[in-house]
Design brief:
alpha/beta, Arc Repressor Mutant, subunit A, D-Maltodextrin-Binding Protein, domain 2, 3 domains, five-stranded mixed sheet, 21% strand, globular, DNA-binding transcription factor activity, WH-like_DNA-bd_sf
């Protein structure tokens, strides 16, 4: 019932809407009561439906754990690791790890299709939709454990044009950037700010900390890959997470300054749920990520 409609549920499962309706009807016949309130919009579970749904979810988790344990007895000759992460972070941070893991364990399937905001990763781990997840340490919940991977700053991105030369420097592998609070920001005072759609509050925070008016551009773009092109065209400035920049070629047409004195530096971790069985494959992937990223083997 996560989709709240028969149509979206059918699309997610790759079946027809009548098939979903028939499956639900069979469940209701089996348990002798209505499970879904069809008169509600969006659809919702009845009180009994909540009980049935929770029980079926726990039964499904037990089946998944049993399959994982059986796969482990085959010593990583088979198995599956479901990874919850944003697609941009998967590309920027996990690709070297995924490649090394695939070479080491060619029969183990890596599932990187769960493209989530970092804020949604804990729920994916808690619900059993993912085996491991990449998120900020501050988002960790009590049922999660993790290996730290890397510290990450927020960077101010401005156009690489002569009038903004005093604001920052080109993106560099050494990660050396002037602090935005220590440079002359007046050149960007009249330049619109392109805000990430899930962080509207940053406009006020930046204005107070940087001492310049921050005028929001009438546009929102969630991912850095959508924001940097507008910066490169000289239309605005924005904020990006440090390790999500390199993969985008247009970073070469931008300049950057560190916001470490304005926005908190985040610790990126790879996490798992302590209260469900973690397969040998999932444990191996977490350890490999910690070794390659967390200890400097493959810095993003």
């Amino acid at each position: 019932m996560e989709e709240r409609s028969f149509r979206r549920a059918a699309e997610r499962l790759g079946v027809t809407q009548p098939h979903v309706s028939q499956s639900l009807r069979r469940l209701e016949e089996k348990y002798g009561a209505m499970i879904v309130d069809r008169h509600a919009s969006p659809l919702r579970l009845t009180p009994l439906g909540e009980v049935v749904f929770d029980s079926l979810r726990r039964m499904a988790l037990i089946e998944v754990e049993t399959l994982q344990q059986c796969a482990d007895f085959k010593e990583l000759r088979t198995g599956r690791v479901r990874i919850a992460c944003s697609s941009e972070r998967s590309i920027s941070m996990l690709m070297p790890v995924a490649a090394a893991f695939a070479r080491a364990y060619p029969k183990v399937e890596l599932d990187l299709t769960l493209d989530l905001l970092l804020e949604d990763v804990p729920d994916a781990l808690a619900s059993g939709r993912a085996d491991v997840g990449v998120l900020f340490q501050r988002l960790m919940t009590a049922d999660l454990n993790a290996y730290p991977l890397v510290e990450e700053r927020y960077l101010m991105a401005v156009p690489d044009a002569p009038e903004y030369a005093s604001v920052g420097v080109p993106f560099n592998g050494e990660g050396v950037y002037p602090k935005a609070t220590s440079v002359d920001l007046m050149p960007i005072a009249g330049l619109p700010f392109l805000c990430p759609s899930n962080h509207q509050e940053r406009k006020e925070i930046l204005s107070r900390a940087l001492g310049i008016p921050v005028h929001a551009m009438p546009m929102m773009a969630l991912k850095p890959g959508l924001r940097l092109p507008f910066v490169a065209e000289g239309l605005c400035w924005t904020v990006c997470q440090e390790h999500l920049i390199r993969q985008h070629e247009l970073h070469r047409r931008c300049r950057f300054a560190s916001l470490e004195d304005v926005l908190p530096v985040q610790t990126v971790v790879i996490a798992w749920n302590e209260h469900v069985y973690q397969s040998l494959a999932a444990r191996a992937f977490c350890r490999m990520a910690a070794d390659m990223i967390g200890r400097g083997g493959t810095q993003p």
